[in-house]
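Re: beginner question about structure tokens

> Can someone show what the tokenized structure looks like for a real chain? I only ever see the sequence side.

Sure, here's an example I had lying around. Input first:
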Amino acid sequence: MSYTEATIQLLSPEGSLVESDVTAPYLPKIAALSDAQLRDFHRQMVVTRRFDIEAGNLQRQGQLALWIPSLGQEAAQVGSGYAARAQDHIFPAYREHAVGRLRGLDPMRIIELLRGLSHGGWDPAQTGNFHLYTLVIGSQSLHATGYAMGLTFDGATATGNPETDAAVVAYFGDGATSQGDVSEAFVFAASYQAPILFFLQNNHWAISVPVERQSRTPLYLRGTGFGVPSVQIDGNDVLASYAVSSTMLDSARAGGGPQFIEALTYRMGAHTTSDDPTKYREHDDVQFWSERDPISRFETFLRAKGESEAFFAEVATEAEDLAADIRTRTLALGVPPTDKMFAVYSDPHPLMDEQRAWLAAYEASLDEVTE
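And the corresponding structure tokens:
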């Protein structure tokens, strides 16, 4: 599945601004962006991609148990993440590395999680209201909806003050739309007119299951069935991601209820480093989407506006510096202690104690065999 007639695109694959009756409502959002903000779009996409690649390399070298790539989805994440205000709350799945970094999350927190040093328990109050990664597919949509309903009950939204009114963004993938949790979230969000933006990154694959096997219709139509205003955008277009997300979040904060965006993008890498996409993907599909790479497209746009070569070199250097820093800090972490896997509860727990004792006895028995 590629673009449809309903797909909103502000930046063509060739890197030029699309001006039409469809894009007209969103173009003022782009016109209001400063050159510095446009440069930051590029910076965030490039630096996050370099972090992503370095983390994948670290996993292949035995430093991480697993890595979850976001390669190819940078525009969807940076645009929508940039559209959220400081008071908004973000509920990610487990691939939103760019959004987390935008909100102030140290990428090492993700590294620690996938190295076995952390259960992912960062405090959203310290990470720009960026909530925890959620590995249970689709469950964060219900968490986010409940939080958005709470904002309404607390009077923290729809007061008429856009500087303080809050909303929620829930990220999930196309595979999650097949989970009952997402449909239930739509029901509650619509019923209570919760201030939430459901942001679907349709990267075309639920591990090895293609999106056309998951749904006979475009996924953005799911929202309309629940009475949720829904649009489909080019997820590889950072301008569309920003402008449409900003518009829909404005509506949600002002009392317009839930909103839904389906961002058409593509998972250029594997589902995780335990997956081999060459076994189920067609070369032509990969080629189609690689020609619509979000970073090179936006770079073309910036160059046409007169951006200097020095800027692109500066960003490339910043990306390499981050990658080197992540590698250094990862190698310094040391071996995850065995006890970490049992540190689930704040107080002693008999089941955890029993499992810890069993593992200790089992490992001791292995030593006896080798002696």
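Each token stands for a local structural state, so reading them left to right follows the chain. The mean pLDDT is 95.
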